[in-house]
Amino acid sequence: MIVILDYGMGNPGSIKNMIRKVGGQASIEKNPETLKDASAIILPGIGSYDNGVTKLKKSGLWDALQIEVQEKKKPFLGICLGMQLLLESSEEGKLAGLGWISGHVRKFSASELKIPHMGWNDLHIQQSSHVLFQDFEAEPRFYHVHSYHADDIPVDQVLGTCTYGYEFVSLVGKENILGCQFHPEKSHRFGKKVFENFLRIIESC
After folding, report:
1. Could you write out the three-class secondary structure of the chain?
2. Does 71 participate in catalysis according to the annotation?
């Protein structure tokens, strides 16, 4: 069973519905104990960086994630803020992130850009051999809503980029850990393919 974390910072219901559409089973949970029996974990998120860190720590999910994802190597997917929290820090706040992936979160810097960035963007695949891209369409597009983006990510951990004024990292991966800045649950058939392939990753573990 995939566990989708509900810590008051996202819309886990739409993610659960999309997973069901592609044949997976998922539950929405707040209790850290439920992570012990999870086959995989999804961390959604909408809102500010420090608030996300604070709520994860107060709920006990922060420490539970360290055990289940970092130590036990369970498949993990962070979405939007959930991806940003994988990094070391953010210009949006003062608290440290999980630090599972090297890098920092920056605000869009081009003065002519409308912030937040909202809309569809083509994904430029950087590592086509990754299982997440199996049977992908030639030009996948995903829906974004964000004012900050990942930066300083090691090249070998950048799976996909998008362009909004300039190129930014929209998809990262390291071992059992994946993170996407876009919202696959709002990205129609393209998002369905992400969840289908996430299920493939889980089945291979």
Report:
1. CEEEECCCCCCHHHHHHHHHHCCCCEEEECCHHHHHHCCEEEECCCCCHHHHHHHHHHHCHHHHHHHHHHHCCCCEEEECHHHHCCCCEECCCCCCCCCCCCCEEEECCCCCCCCCEEEEEECEECCCCCHHHCCCCCCCEEEEEECEEEECCCHHHEEEEEEECEEEEEEEEECCEEEECCEHHHCHHHHHHHHHHHHHHHHHC
2. no
Summarize pLDDT for 160-176 with one digit per residue, the tens.
999 999 999 999 999 99
Instruction: Specify the pTM.
Output: 0.96
Q: Of 80, 162, 180, 196, which residue is the catalytic one?
A: 80
From the list 117, 144, 183, 196, the catalytic residue is 183
Instruction: Assess whether 183 carries a catalytic annotation.
Output: yes
Sketch out the chain's domains with CATH numbers.
2-204 (3.40.50.880)
